[in-house]
Amino acid sequence: EAASKGGYEHFMLKEIHEQPRGIKETLTKRLDENGRIKLDDIHLTKEDIENISKVYIIACGTAYHAGLVGRYAIEKLVKIPVEVDIASEFRYRDPFVDENTLVIIVSQSGETLDTLAALREAKKKGARILSITNVLGSSIARESDDVFYTWAGPEIAVASTKAYTTQLVSFYMIALDMALKTGRIDDAEYKRMIEEIKLTSGKIQHIIDQDSKIVEIAEEIKEKHNGFFIGRGLDYNTAMEGSLKMKEVSYMHTEAFAAGELKHGTIALIEDGTPVIGIASQEKLFEKSVSNMKEVKARGAFVIAIAQEGNTEVEKVADRVFYIPKVDDILASILTVIPLQLMAYHVSVMRGCDVDKPKNLAKSVTVE
Ligand code: G6P
């Protein structure tokens, strides 16, 4: 086992470090000689896409959080309404799905029982099924009409990291492909975005190289019992994933909130020293996010901000700031999650938890 960890202390850390490569594999191997996306196992034609009235994204756990980012990418780029649902909820809700619905199933393992059952339910109702999975020939892959394989490589740690970031890249690629086929994006913007996605790989590496800053932050919160992750728009989705990571591996009780919603109740829970991780990567929402950080700071929170380089304004409010490299708002989720993965990892190690096999959790849940 030590050998397969490649010199890393834990699989989770190894897999965090494998993300720049996972993204490169997922993206660059699917570009043709003209730099266009070539999706071998997805056969959606222009006409098919034009007939889609609605997209449903269905998944569990971390894959569900990837789906939330996927919704944003598809609505923004392809301009089709998207709903995202948790598989175990979708199954029993008698969802409104028909032949004009595209159902996107997201599952690292391709074997999660609730997700597989949701796939079958959607298929029964006539939907076309496109799955995003990391495991070749898995049940979900076999039962889908179209498949996108994330080329993250095997993920061993129970807490998902590299599967998540490659799922995000998959969504951007699927959305870009659908947008180009239907003329909803012009060629120049399409190419520019592919170049931007390519660059995220090096930017993730740059974040990982600053791990010592995250270790310092982890030291400051390692003994806390409660914490909050807040953000707006895409940053809210990242907050949900960051909070899940922290709970999964360190057992610290954290909750994610849409930053603007805090004042409607949750802010009552902020006490002196409560850690609040505020994600403020969205340039358009930056000032609003900073003002939400101010609100919690005024109530005694210990504020840790994640912002894009150059937005130093945030230092006036936050106790600690971690900067991610400059990136398009729409792609920021690929980067903002990295410091949160590292933070959860370090807090877990400092608390003496079983990082790779947290109590009560399984890598793949094949029961209801
Ligand atoms: C389990 C794992 C999670 C994972 C979820 C969905 O609960 O512990 O890390 O996100 O299943 O797994 P999947 O393989 O369907 O992506």
Please tell me about this protein's structure:
- With 368 residues, this protein is an alpha/beta fold.
- 43% of the residues lie in helices and 16% in strands.
- The protein is built from 13 helices and 10 strands.
- The strands form 2 sheets. The chain has a 5-stranded parallel beta sheet with strand order 2-1-3-4-5, with helices on both faces. It has a 5-stranded parallel beta sheet with strand order 7-6-8-9-10, with helices on both faces.
- Helix 12 links the parallel strand 8 and strand 9 (302-308).
- Helix 2 (19-28) packs antiparallel against helix 9, helix 4 (61-77) runs antiparallel to helix 11 and helix 10 crosses helix 13 (333-350).
- It is globular.
- The mean pLDDT is 96.
- The protein binds 6-O-phosphono-alpha-D-glucopyranose.
- 6-O-phosphono-alpha-D-glucopyranose (G6P) is lined by residues 60-63, 107-109, 112, 115, 158-160, 361-365.
- It catalyses: D-fructose 6-phosphate + L-glutamine = D-glucosamine 6-phosphate + L-glutamate.
- Homodimer.
- Residues 45-184, 217-358 form the SIS domain.
- Its EC number is 2.6.1.16.
- Catalyzes the first step in hexosamine metabolism, converting fructose-6P into glucosamine-6P using glutamine as a nitrogen source.
